[in-house]
Amino acid sequence: MLALSIGAAWGTVHFGPIGKPSQAAVECSNLQKFVANEELEGKAEWVEYRSLVDQFLALSPTSDARIPLIEEMASKVIGVLGHDLLIYKEMEKFTGCLLQSKRSEIPGLIEETESAIAFLNGSTPLNGNFFDPELGTC
């Protein structure tokens, strides 16, 4: 009898009352919708960025239009990263919806994305040392 009660309680928590999705299922469904929406918005900005890259590549190396175009490209990348950051932060709230193997990656993705946005905004240098000091300097 106890096992049946425990099983019923577990089933209700994980699957909700009969005919209704559980709270976890609703949260995961909402997360998936949120991610899909942010991906669509981010992709639209990515397409604009790629168009700007094509424009940039068509310019002569001495063109005065290069700097404003680079600034606009950085702005579009910041927009794309902003959508990614929103996705990662929402995923961090609902890690139970994620694959177990991906849950631990979210804080690092948030930190790296915030760092890239800050760098592109010009507010901070990239965080991290990429070169081995024992191999010499320029």
Concise synopsis of the structure shown:
The protein is mostly helical. It contains five helices and no strands.
Give an overview in words.
- The chain has helices at 2-15, 23-58, 66-93, 100-103, 106-121.
- By secondary structure, it is an all-alpha fold.
- The radius of gyration is 23 Å and the shape is elongated.
Can you lay out the helices and strands and say which pair or pack?
Elements lengths: L1 H14 L7 H36 L7 H28 L6 H4 L2 H16 L17
Helix pairs in contact: 2-3, 3-5
Envelope shape: elongated
Helix/strand-derived category reads mainly alpha
The total of beta strands comes to: 0
Distance between the termini: 75 Å
Query: Quaternary arrangement of the chains shown?
Result: single chain
Q: Indicate the proportion of strand residues.
A: under 5%
Show unreliable segments.
none
Helix content: over 70%
Following the backbone from N to C, one meets helices and strands in this order, namely HHHHH
